[in-house]
Amino acid sequence: MKKRRTILISTFVFVVVTAIYWPKRWNYIVIHHSAGNYGNIEHLQRIHDQRQSKEPIHAISYHYIVGNGNGMEDGTVASDLRKKFNLWGVHVSKNNWDKNFRGIGICIIGNLDKSAMTQKQYVSLLKLTKELMEKHSIGIDAIGFHGKLEGEATKCPGKFFPYEQFMNDLKSK
Ligand SMILES: [Zn+2]
To answer: How much is the pTM?
Structure first.
C-alpha cells in the first residue's frame, strides 16, 4: 500500500511540474546577437555542438533567432526543440544560471558590434519580445541584454544595438 501511495504521489508531482510549472516558469528575456553575418538554425546548431559539446540537448543555445536575410529570410523568427519543449537555454554563463533556466534567449543574427540590425529584424524582435512579455507576464525590469548582466564578460548584443530605443519602444503600447 505504501509503495502504491509513493507512486501516486510521484506521478502527481511529475504531472504538476511538467504540466503546470515547466511551461510557465519563464521569468526573464535575454537578448543576444550571433556575432556572425550568416545564421540559421542549422548553423547555430553546429556552433553549439562545437562550443558547448557537454550540453546534453541537441538544439541551439537560444529559444528564438531572428534572421537577417543571410541564411534565413530577413526578419523571420525561428526556433527549435528548446522552445518547443520549454527546455532551459545555454545563452549566458553559469554566473547567471537562473537566466538560463528561467530566461528566454533571443538571438539577432548578425554582428551588431560592426553594424546595426535590419529594420525588419528590429520590428520582429520588438513584436516577439512584447508577445513573450504578455504571454508570461514578464515585466520590463526582467528584460536583459547579455553583456549588461552582472557577471558576464561580453559585448553581446553589440554596440550598435539600439538599447535606449528598444526599451522605450517596449514601454510604449
Ligand atoms: Zn549573447
So the answer is: 0.92
Q: pLDDT tens digits for 26-59?
A: 999 999 999 999 999 999 999 999 999 999 899 9
Distance from residue 3's CA to the centre of ligand 1 (Å): 47
User: Which domains does the chain show, CATH number per domain?
Assistant: 27-171 (3.40.80.10)
Task: Using the mean position of ligand 1's atoms as its centre, give its distance from the Cα of residue 156 in Å.
Answer: 5
Quote the ligand 1 centre to 17 CA distance (angstroms): 29
- Give the integer Cα–Cα distance in Å for 106 and 42: 16
Distance 11 CA to ligand 1 centre (A): 37
